[in-house]
Amino acid sequence: MNPGPENFLQYIRYEKRLSHHTLTAYANDLDQFSKFLVAECNIGQPEQADFRHIRSWIVSLVEVGLDKTSVNRKIATLRCYYGFLLRQKVITIDPMTKIQALKTSKKLPMYVEEKPMEMLLNDIDFPDTFEGIRDKLVLELLYGTGIRLSELTGLKTVDVNLYEKTIMVLGKRNKHRIIPLTQPLYELILQYNQLKNDAFSGQADAVYLLVSDKGVPAYPVLIQRIVKRHLNLVTTLEKKSPHVLRHSFATHLLNRGADLNAIKDLLGHSSLAATQIYTHTSLEQLKKTYDQAHPKAKK
């Protein structure tokens, strides 16, 4: 058996347990690269390519105007793929050794300021209906725990420990983490559960915590709509997504003195490097405060 692209995709699906979205992206990248090799280099298999062919593909991507972030993702795909081939002893030299990622400007995480979030969750009235309390619970869970969209939709009823006031979240690479619930969030879950049972007479999906207006498991588009509709009430941010609430959770914790390692664990990051971007956001906030308040700032 030749461990080419198909075997590699099987490997990252079943061994690495990457998400379906990542798997699709890897498959598309390898398909594009393979077609380039055939059309431009007369090479039938990616394992026959060397760093010059890879570099030519990267140059072609830049020339057609693909943004650097997307190019770097494709480079990461090839780096993972050729690493796989090297371990399988299909190749003896890794052609990615001489390939470097393109330099990009770092984008700070987009987040909602504390006051607008307080206004949204404390001052805006949510109807005491199943839909109203469900929508508020979505916002409170995203902002109050920092979980990802996929983690929210995957949250099961049994993952909520009302006795311990915690939730168990299944994160990337099938890693579990425990996140504490605040008292208001705990009480909101109790209220939601009662309304859920009343609205559907116990006929709603019992496996997953969050359900749609029809009682079926909540899906990503539904959550995105809920978040965007409510963030529109309090912020003019260009992006209004569940991930913005995750960024807000981390940024507000850091601004209030939370330990970076604790934030890392709450977010489910595998390394501290991924969490450190929030220190830049916090620094920007400090600069803003300084410019507004210090008498020497504008002189």
TrEMBL record:
<feature type="active site">
    <location>
        <position position="246"/>
    </location>
</feature>
<keyword id="KW-0131">Cell cycle</keyword>
<dbReference type="GO" id="GO:0051301">
    <property type="term" value="P:cell division"/>
</dbReference>
<keyword id="KW-0238">DNA-binding</keyword>
<keyword id="KW-0229">DNA integration</keyword>
<dbReference type="InterPro" id="IPR050090">
    <property type="entry name" value="Tyrosine_recombinase_XerCD"/>
</dbReference>
<feature type="active site">
    <location>
        <position position="148"/>
    </location>
</feature>
<dbReference type="Pfam" id="PF00589">
    <property type="entry name" value="Phage_integrase"/>
</dbReference>
<dbReference type="Pfam" id="PF02899">
    <property type="entry name" value="Phage_int_SAM_1"/>
</dbReference>
<feature type="domain" description="Core-binding (CB)">
    <location>
        <begin position="1"/>
        <end position="86"/>
    </location>
</feature>
<dbReference type="InterPro" id="IPR023009">
    <property type="entry name" value="Tyrosine_recombinase_XerC/XerD"/>
</dbReference>
<feature type="active site">
    <location>
        <position position="269"/>
    </location>
</feature>
<dbReference type="InterPro" id="IPR044068">
    <property type="entry name" value="CB"/>
</dbReference>
<dbReference type="InterPro" id="IPR010998">
    <property type="entry name" value="Integrase_recombinase_N"/>
</dbReference>
<protein>
    <recommendedName>
        <fullName>Tyrosine recombinase XerC</fullName>
    </recommendedName>
</protein>
<feature type="active site">
    <location>
        <position position="243"/>
    </location>
</feature>
<comment type="function">
    <text>Site-specific tyrosine recombinase, which acts by catalyzing the cutting and rejoining of the recombining DNA molecules. The XerC-XerD complex is essential to convert dimers of the bacterial chromosome into monomers to permit their segregation at cell division. It also contributes to the segregational stability of plasmids.</text>
</comment>
<dbReference type="InterPro" id="IPR013762">
    <property type="entry name" value="Integrase-like_cat_sf"/>
</dbReference>
<keyword id="KW-0159">Chromosome partition</keyword>
<dbReference type="InterPro" id="IPR002104">
    <property type="entry name" value="Integrase_catalytic"/>
</dbReference>
<dbReference type="InterPro" id="IPR011010">
    <property type="entry name" value="DNA_brk_join_enz"/>
</dbReference>
<dbReference type="GO" id="GO:0009037">
    <property type="term" value="F:tyrosine-based site-specific recombinase activity"/>
</dbReference>
<comment type="subunit">
    <text>Forms a cyclic heterotetrameric complex composed of two molecules of XerC and two molecules of XerD.</text>
</comment>
<dbReference type="GO" id="GO:0005737">
    <property type="term" value="C:cytoplasm"/>
</dbReference>
<dbReference type="GO" id="GO:0003677">
    <property type="term" value="F:DNA binding"/>
</dbReference>
<keyword id="KW-0132">Cell division</keyword>
<feature type="domain" description="Tyr recombinase">
    <location>
        <begin position="107"/>
        <end position="291"/>
    </location>
</feature>
<dbReference type="GO" id="GO:0007059">
    <property type="term" value="P:chromosome segregation"/>
</dbReference>
<keyword id="KW-0963">Cytoplasm</keyword>
<feature type="active site" description="O-(3'-phospho-DNA)-tyrosine intermediate">
    <location>
        <position position="278"/>
    </location>
</feature>
<feature type="active site">
    <location>
        <position position="172"/>
    </location>
</feature>
<comment type="similarity">
    <text>Belongs to the 'phage' integrase family. XerC subfamily.</text>
</comment>
<dbReference type="InterPro" id="IPR004107">
    <property type="entry name" value="Integrase_SAM-like_N"/>
</dbReference>
<keyword id="KW-0233">DNA recombination</keyword>
<dbReference type="GO" id="GO:0006313">
    <property type="term" value="P:DNA transposition"/>
</dbReference>
